[in-house]
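Progress note, sequence design subtask.
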Protein backbone atom coordinates (compact mmCIF):
# COMPACT_ATOMS: atom_id res chain seq x y z
CA UNK A 1 0.00 0.00 0.00
CA UNK A 2 1.14 3.54 -0.64
CA UNK A 3 1.82 5.52 2.51
CA UNK A 4 -0.79 8.29 3.17
CA UNK A 5 0.18 11.73 1.95
CA UNK A 6 -0.04 13.44 5.33
CA UNK A 7 1.72 12.67 8.55
CA UNK A 8 -0.54 11.08 11.14
CA UNK A 9 -0.99 14.36 13.01
CA UNK A 10 -2.21 16.07 9.86
CA UNK A 11 -4.47 13.41 8.37
CA UNK A 12 -7.73 14.74 9.75
CA UNK A 13 -6.75 18.30 8.90
CA UNK A 14 -5.94 17.47 5.29
CA UNK A 15 -9.02 15.26 4.83
CA UNK A 16 -7.47 13.41 1.89
CA UNK A 17 -8.93 10.42 0.13
CA UNK A 18 -6.68 7.43 0.95
CA UNK A 19 -4.09 6.77 -1.78
CA UNK A 20 -4.79 3.95 -4.19
CA UNK A 21 -2.54 0.86 -4.25
CA UNK A 22 -0.54 0.77 -7.46
CA UNK A 23 2.73 -0.39 -8.90
CA UNK A 24 5.05 2.36 -7.74
CA UNK A 25 7.03 4.31 -10.33
CA UNK A 26 8.13 7.03 -7.94
CA UNK A 27 11.72 7.21 -6.73
CA UNK A 28 12.30 5.25 -3.54
CA UNK A 29 11.23 7.24 -0.52
CA UNK A 30 8.83 9.43 -2.53
CA UNK A 31 5.93 7.01 -2.80
CA UNK A 32 3.59 9.64 -1.34
CA UNK A 33 3.51 11.33 -4.77
CA UNK A 34 0.94 10.14 -7.30
CA UNK A 35 1.65 8.67 -10.71
CA UNK A 36 -0.67 9.31 -13.65
CA UNK A 37 -2.43 5.97 -13.08
CA UNK A 38 -2.85 6.71 -9.40
CA UNK A 39 -4.37 10.11 -10.12
CA UNK A 40 -6.99 8.44 -12.30
CA UNK A 41 -7.59 5.78 -9.66
CA UNK A 42 -8.00 8.48 -7.03
CA UNK A 43 -10.61 10.23 -9.17
CA UNK A 44 -12.46 6.96 -9.75
CA UNK A 45 -12.44 6.12 -6.04
CA UNK A 46 -13.75 9.55 -5.15
CA UNK A 47 -16.60 9.30 -7.66
CA UNK A 48 -17.48 5.81 -6.40
CA UNK A 49 -17.59 7.07 -2.82
CA UNK A 50 -19.47 10.31 -3.60
CA UNK A 51 -21.52 9.73 -6.78
CA UNK A 52 -24.04 12.41 -5.92
CA UNK A 53 -21.50 15.25 -5.95
CA UNK A 54 -18.54 14.01 -8.04
CA UNK A 55 -18.22 13.12 -11.71
CA UNK A 56 -15.11 12.37 -13.81
CA UNK A 57 -14.38 14.10 -17.10
CA UNK A 58 -11.41 14.72 -19.32
CA UNK A 59 -10.52 17.74 -21.39
CA UNK A 60 -8.75 15.88 -24.21
CA UNK A 61 -5.51 14.02 -24.80
CA UNK A 62 -1.86 14.91 -24.39
CA UNK A 63 0.74 14.72 -27.15
CA UNK A 64 1.47 11.06 -26.27
CA UNK A 65 -2.24 10.27 -26.11
CA UNK A 66 -2.94 10.26 -22.39
CA UNK A 67 -6.33 11.52 -21.29
CA UNK A 68 -6.12 14.71 -19.23
CA UNK A 69 -8.47 13.71 -16.44
CA UNK A 70 -10.51 15.93 -14.19
CA UNK A 71 -13.28 15.75 -11.63
CA UNK A 72 -16.35 17.96 -11.32
CA UNK A 73 -17.76 18.59 -7.85
CA UNK A 74 -21.21 20.11 -7.31
CA UNK A 75 -24.49 19.21 -5.63
CA UNK A 76 -26.26 18.58 -8.95
CA UNK A 77 -23.14 17.26 -10.57
CA UNK A 78 -24.72 16.09 -13.82
CA UNK A 79 -26.45 19.40 -14.47
CA UNK A 80 -25.09 22.63 -15.90
CA UNK A 81 -26.55 25.07 -13.41
CA UNK A 82 -26.40 28.85 -13.36
CA UNK A 83 -23.85 28.90 -10.57
CA UNK A 84 -20.36 30.41 -10.32
CA UNK A 85 -17.83 28.01 -11.81
CA UNK A 86 -14.25 27.52 -10.70
CA UNK A 87 -11.47 25.77 -12.62
CA UNK A 88 -8.55 24.48 -10.54
CA UNK A 89 -5.61 23.14 -12.53
CA UNK A 90 -2.20 21.81 -11.54
CA UNK A 91 1.08 20.41 -12.81
CA UNK A 92 1.25 22.25 -16.10
CA UNK A 93 4.97 22.04 -15.32
CA UNK A 94 5.79 18.38 -14.77
CA UNK A 95 8.37 18.71 -12.00
CA UNK A 96 6.07 20.85 -9.83
CA UNK A 97 4.72 17.73 -8.21
CA UNK A 98 3.40 19.31 -5.04
CA UNK A 99 0.71 21.01 -7.13
CA UNK A 100 -0.83 17.72 -8.17
CA UNK A 101 -0.98 16.68 -4.53
CA UNK A 102 -2.69 19.92 -3.47
CA UNK A 103 -5.25 19.47 -6.26
CA UNK A 104 -6.03 15.97 -4.98
CA UNK A 105 -6.23 17.29 -1.43
CA UNK A 106 -8.80 19.87 -2.55
CA UNK A 107 -10.86 17.03 -4.03
CA UNK A 108 -10.70 15.31 -0.65
CA UNK A 109 -11.66 18.42 1.32
CA UNK A 110 -14.73 19.06 -0.84
CA UNK A 111 -16.01 15.48 -0.96
CA UNK A 112 -15.06 14.02 2.43
CA UNK A 113 -16.48 16.97 4.36
CA UNK A 114 -19.67 17.46 2.34
CA UNK A 115 -22.73 17.11 4.56
CA UNK A 116 -20.71 17.31 7.75
CA UNK A 117 -22.21 18.95 10.80
CA UNK A 118 -19.07 20.64 12.10
CA UNK A 119 -17.87 24.07 10.99
CA UNK A 120 -15.75 22.71 8.15
CA UNK A 121 -18.56 20.44 6.97
CA UNK A 122 -21.09 23.27 6.89
CA UNK A 123 -18.63 25.51 5.06
CA UNK A 124 -17.82 22.88 2.43
CA UNK A 125 -21.48 21.96 1.99
CA UNK A 126 -22.37 25.58 1.29
CA UNK A 127 -19.59 25.81 -1.29
CA UNK A 128 -20.50 22.60 -3.09
CA UNK A 129 -24.21 23.45 -3.09
CA UNK A 130 -23.65 26.86 -4.67
CA UNK A 131 -20.69 26.31 -7.02
CA UNK A 132 -19.58 24.10 -9.90
CA UNK A 133 -15.94 23.17 -9.36
CA UNK A 134 -13.75 21.58 -12.03
CA UNK A 135 -10.38 20.20 -10.91
CA UNK A 136 -7.71 18.88 -13.30
CA UNK A 137 -4.79 17.62 -11.19
CA UNK A 138 -2.32 17.06 -14.04
CA UNK A 139 -2.45 19.23 -17.15
CA UNK A 140 0.87 17.78 -18.37
CA UNK A 141 0.62 13.99 -17.89
CA UNK A 142 3.36 13.08 -20.38
CA UNK A 143 5.90 15.30 -18.69
CA UNK A 144 4.76 14.11 -15.27
CA UNK A 145 5.34 10.47 -16.16
CA UNK A 146 8.72 11.20 -17.74
CA UNK A 147 9.76 13.19 -14.68
CA UNK A 148 9.86 10.00 -12.59
CA UNK A 149 10.88 7.61 -15.37
CA UNK A 150 13.21 4.86 -14.22
CA UNK A 151 12.46 5.53 -10.59
CA UNK A 152 14.44 8.76 -10.41
CA UNK A 153 13.60 12.45 -10.60
CA UNK A 154 14.51 14.26 -13.83
CA UNK A 155 13.35 17.79 -12.92
CA UNK A 156 11.46 17.80 -16.22
CA UNK A 157 9.32 20.89 -16.84
CA UNK A 158 7.91 20.77 -20.38
CA UNK A 159 5.64 18.45 -22.31
CA UNK A 160 7.15 15.63 -24.41
CA UNK A 161 6.52 16.93 -27.90
CA UNK A 162 9.28 16.72 -30.51
CA UNK A 163 10.37 20.04 -32.02
CA UNK A 164 10.65 20.27 -35.83
CA UNK A 165 14.24 20.82 -36.96
CA UNK A 166 15.65 20.08 -33.53
CA UNK A 167 16.68 17.13 -31.44
CA UNK A 168 15.19 18.85 -28.38
CA UNK A 169 11.99 17.62 -26.79
CA UNK A 170 9.25 19.60 -25.15
CA UNK A 171 7.48 22.95 -24.93
CA UNK A 172 6.84 25.02 -21.82
CA UNK A 173 3.05 24.85 -21.72
CA UNK A 174 2.80 28.06 -19.71
CA UNK A 175 4.47 29.98 -22.52
CA UNK A 176 2.00 28.65 -25.12
CA UNK A 177 -1.14 30.70 -24.63
CA UNK A 178 -2.27 33.02 -27.37
CA UNK A 179 -2.35 36.34 -25.53
CA UNK A 180 1.00 38.16 -25.78
CA UNK A 181 2.73 34.97 -26.94
CA UNK A 182 6.46 35.59 -27.44
CA UNK A 183 5.96 39.32 -26.98
CA UNK A 184 8.13 40.55 -24.23
CA UNK A 185 11.21 38.50 -23.41
CA UNK A 186 9.32 36.25 -21.02
CA UNK A 187 10.10 33.01 -22.84
CA UNK A 188 12.83 31.42 -24.94
CA UNK A 189 13.10 30.72 -28.67
CA UNK A 190 15.63 27.92 -28.02
CA UNK A 191 14.04 24.45 -28.14
CA UNK A 192 16.50 23.21 -25.52
CA UNK A 193 15.42 25.86 -23.01
CA UNK A 194 13.07 24.93 -20.16
CA UNK A 195 11.02 28.03 -21.05
CA UNK A 196 10.84 27.31 -24.80
CA UNK A 197 7.65 28.90 -26.12
CA UNK A 198 7.16 26.58 -29.09
CA UNK A 199 7.05 27.30 -32.85
CA UNK A 200 3.75 29.16 -32.47
CA UNK A 201 1.04 29.85 -29.93
CA UNK A 202 -1.22 26.87 -29.22
CA UNK A 203 1.26 24.47 -30.83
CA UNK A 204 1.12 22.05 -27.88
CA UNK A 205 -2.06 19.95 -27.68
CA UNK A 206 -2.20 20.29 -23.89
CA UNK A 207 -2.43 24.09 -24.17
CA UNK A 208 -5.16 23.76 -26.80
CA UNK A 209 -7.12 21.38 -24.57
CA UNK A 210 -6.91 23.90 -21.71
CA UNK A 211 -8.08 26.66 -24.06
CA UNK A 212 -10.92 24.56 -25.44
CA UNK A 213 -12.16 23.63 -21.98
CA UNK A 214 -12.24 27.25 -20.81
CA UNK A 215 -13.93 28.33 -24.04
CA UNK A 216 -16.51 25.55 -23.63
CA UNK A 217 -17.79 27.08 -20.39
CA UNK A 218 -19.44 29.95 -22.27
CA UNK A 219 -23.23 29.61 -22.07
CA UNK A 220 -25.64 31.90 -23.89
CA UNK A 221 -22.77 34.25 -24.58
CA UNK A 222 -21.67 34.45 -20.92
CA UNK A 223 -18.56 32.87 -19.46
CA UNK A 224 -19.61 30.75 -16.48
CA UNK A 225 -16.11 30.45 -15.04
CA UNK A 226 -15.62 33.31 -12.62
CA UNK A 227 -12.36 32.11 -11.03
CA UNK A 228 -9.39 30.03 -12.16
CA UNK A 229 -6.82 28.82 -9.66
CA UNK A 230 -3.58 27.58 -11.23
CA UNK A 231 -1.21 25.67 -8.97
CA UNK A 232 2.55 26.03 -9.43
CA UNK A 233 5.71 25.77 -7.35
CA UNK A 234 8.02 26.68 -5.74
CA UNK A 235 7.98 30.41 -4.91
CA UNK A 236 5.56 30.71 -1.94
CA UNK A 237 3.49 33.31 -3.79
CA UNK A 238 -0.05 34.36 -4.66
CA UNK A 239 0.06 35.83 -8.18
CA UNK A 240 -2.44 37.61 -10.45
CA UNK A 241 -2.31 39.15 -13.98
CA UNK A 242 -0.64 40.53 -15.81
CA UNK A 243 2.66 38.66 -16.13
CA UNK A 244 3.68 39.98 -19.56
CA UNK A 245 4.18 43.58 -18.31
CA UNK A 246 5.43 45.26 -15.14
CA UNK A 247 2.79 47.95 -15.53
CA UNK A 248 0.32 47.54 -12.67
CA UNK A 249 -2.71 48.72 -14.62
CA UNK A 250 -2.09 48.37 -18.36
CA UNK A 251 -4.66 49.89 -20.73
CA UNK A 252 -6.62 46.66 -21.15
CA UNK A 253 -7.20 46.21 -17.39
CA UNK A 254 -9.95 48.22 -15.69
CA UNK A 255 -8.85 49.85 -12.44
CA UNK A 256 -11.60 48.06 -10.52
CA UNK A 257 -10.27 44.70 -11.72
CA UNK A 258 -6.78 45.62 -10.57
CA UNK A 259 -8.07 46.70 -7.17
CA UNK A 260 -10.06 43.48 -6.80
CA UNK A 261 -7.05 41.34 -7.74
CA UNK A 262 -4.87 43.12 -5.20
CA UNK A 263 -7.43 43.02 -2.39
CA UNK A 264 -8.42 39.39 -2.88
CA UNK A 265 -4.81 38.34 -3.50
CA UNK A 266 -3.78 39.89 -0.19
CA UNK A 267 -6.59 38.09 1.60
CA UNK A 268 -5.43 34.78 0.12
CA UNK A 269 -1.81 35.46 1.02
CA UNK A 270 -2.77 36.24 4.60
CA UNK A 271 -4.46 32.85 4.79
CA UNK A 272 -1.76 30.62 3.28
CA UNK A 273 1.31 32.62 4.30
CA UNK A 274 2.42 33.32 0.72
CA UNK A 275 3.57 36.70 -0.57
CA UNK A 276 0.87 38.33 -2.76
CA UNK A 277 2.06 40.15 -5.89
CA UNK A 278 1.40 40.72 -9.57
CA UNK A 279 2.74 37.91 -11.74
CA UNK A 280 5.38 40.08 -13.38
CA UNK A 281 6.81 41.02 -9.97
CA UNK A 282 8.27 37.52 -9.95
CA UNK A 283 9.50 37.75 -13.56
CA UNK A 284 8.08 38.52 -16.99
CA UNK A 285 6.16 35.67 -18.62
CA UNK A 286 4.59 35.90 -22.06
CA UNK A 287 2.03 33.41 -23.32
CA UNK A 288 0.87 32.84 -19.73
CA UNK A 289 -2.24 30.80 -18.92
CA UNK A 290 -3.65 33.31 -16.42
CA UNK A 291 -3.05 36.34 -18.64
CA UNK A 292 -4.89 34.63 -21.51
CA UNK A 293 -7.94 33.53 -19.47
CA UNK A 294 -8.31 36.93 -17.81
CA UNK A 295 -7.86 38.89 -21.04
CA UNK A 296 -10.01 36.61 -23.21
CA UNK A 297 -12.87 35.97 -20.78
CA UNK A 298 -12.52 38.37 -17.86
CA UNK A 299 -12.04 35.45 -15.46
CA UNK A 300 -10.37 36.28 -12.16
CA UNK A 301 -7.23 34.16 -12.40
CA UNK A 302 -4.87 33.46 -9.52
CA UNK A 303 -1.77 31.31 -9.21
CA UNK A 304 -0.56 29.76 -5.98
CA UNK A 305 3.18 29.10 -6.07
CA UNK A 306 3.66 26.43 -3.41
CA UNK A 307 6.65 26.21 -1.09
CA UNK A 308 9.94 24.67 -2.17
CA UNK A 309 11.46 21.64 -0.52
CA UNK A 310 14.46 22.39 1.67
CA UNK A 311 16.64 19.69 0.14
CA UNK A 312 14.97 19.26 -3.27
CA UNK A 313 13.15 22.28 -4.59
CA UNK A 314 10.45 20.51 -6.61
CA UNK A 315 10.17 17.39 -4.47
CA UNK A 316 9.30 18.37 -0.89
CA UNK A 317 9.53 15.74 1.81
CA UNK A 318 6.32 14.16 3.05
CA UNK A 319 6.24 16.39 6.13
CA UNK A 320 7.02 19.55 4.10
CA UNK A 321 4.32 18.70 1.59
CA UNK A 322 1.72 17.90 4.25
CA UNK A 323 2.36 21.17 6.06
CA UNK A 324 2.11 23.24 2.87
CA UNK A 325 -1.10 21.54 1.80
CA UNK A 326 -2.57 22.12 5.23
CA UNK A 327 -1.63 25.82 5.07
CA UNK A 328 -3.57 26.20 1.84
CA UNK A 329 -6.94 24.87 2.95
CA UNK A 330 -8.27 28.16 4.28
CA UNK A 331 -7.07 30.09 1.24
CA UNK A 332 -8.61 27.66 -1.23
CA UNK A 333 -11.97 27.59 0.55
CA UNK A 334 -11.99 31.38 0.80
CA UNK A 335 -11.35 31.74 -2.93
CA UNK A 336 -14.20 29.33 -3.69
CA UNK A 337 -16.48 31.35 -1.44
CA UNK A 338 -15.57 34.58 -3.21
CA UNK A 339 -16.21 33.16 -6.68
CA UNK A 340 -19.68 34.67 -6.87
CA UNK A 341 -18.18 38.18 -6.56
CA UNK A 342 -14.39 38.55 -6.63
CA UNK A 343 -14.88 42.34 -6.45
CA UNK A 344 -16.19 42.00 -2.89
CA UNK A 345 -12.71 42.03 -1.36
CA UNK A 346 -12.14 45.55 -2.75
CA UNK A 347 -15.51 46.87 -1.58
CA UNK A 348 -16.81 46.95 -5.15
CA UNK A 349 -19.67 44.43 -4.90
CA UNK A 350 -22.37 47.06 -5.32
CA UNK A 351 -20.85 48.22 -8.60
CA UNK A 352 -20.18 44.79 -10.12
CA UNK A 353 -22.16 41.98 -8.45
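Output:
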Amino acid sequence: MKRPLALVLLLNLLALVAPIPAAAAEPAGFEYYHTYAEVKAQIDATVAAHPGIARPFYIGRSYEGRKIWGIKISDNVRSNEYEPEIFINAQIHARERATNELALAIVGWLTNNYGGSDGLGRRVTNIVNSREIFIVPTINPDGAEFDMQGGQWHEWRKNRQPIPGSTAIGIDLNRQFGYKWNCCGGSSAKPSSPTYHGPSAWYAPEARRYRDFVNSRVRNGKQQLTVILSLHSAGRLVLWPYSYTRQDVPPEMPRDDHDAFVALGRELGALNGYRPEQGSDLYIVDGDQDDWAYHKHGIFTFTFEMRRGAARRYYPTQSELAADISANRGAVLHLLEQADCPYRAAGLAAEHC
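Residues 1-24 have pLDDT under 50 and may be disordered. Work on this subtask will continue into the next period as scheduled.
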